[in-house]
Amino acid sequence: MLKNILLPTLSILFLSSSVMAGPGGKTYNVADFGAKPDGKTLCTEAIQNAVERCAREGGGTVYFGAGTWLTGTIYLESRITLWLDSGCVLLGSKEKEDYGRPHKLAGTEGETFSYWGIIAGKGLENIAIRGRGTIDGQGANFRYKKGARPKNIYLENCSDVLIEDVRLRSAGSWMQHYRNCDRLTIRGIAVFNHVAYNNDGLNIDSCRDVSIIGCVVDSDDDGIVLKSLSRKPCENITISDCVVSSHCNSIKMGTESGGGFQNITVTNCTICSPRYSKVTYGRQRGLAGLALEIVDGGTLDRVVVSNLTIKGVTVPIFMRLGNRARLYEEDQPKPNVGKFRNVIVSNIVAIDCSPVGCSITGLPGHSIENITLSDIRLGFEGGGTREQAAREIPEKPESYPESTMFGTLPAYGFFCRHVEDLRLHNLKFETAASDYRHAVVLDDVENAVLDAIDVPFQAGAAGMIRCTNSKDIQVRNCRPPAGTERFLDLNGPRTANIMLLSNDFGRVSEISHLAPDVAKTALALVGNHPPAK
Question: Which pLDDT tens digit goes with each residue over 253-271?
Answer without folding.
Answer: 999 999 999 999 999 999 9
